[in-house]
Prior knowledge:
Blueprint: H1 9-18, H2 33-43, H3 49-57
Helix pairs in contact: 1-2
Amino acid sequence: ICERYQVPLKAVALQFGLKHPAVISTIPGPRNSDHMLENIKMSQVDINPDLWEELKHENLIDNNCPL
């Protein structure tokens, strides 16, 4: 699904938690400055809302998840 939308899985994983209205921030825990820069880059990837809906449709995300 991520490949079809041309979105890195890392970006989806990082942004998933932030989509919940109760979550203000996440701390991915980079091991070095390269990881930190990659996390920043992945947090800025534009993710088509249809990707989230398709993940729900495929039961990869619970349908009740507030995205």
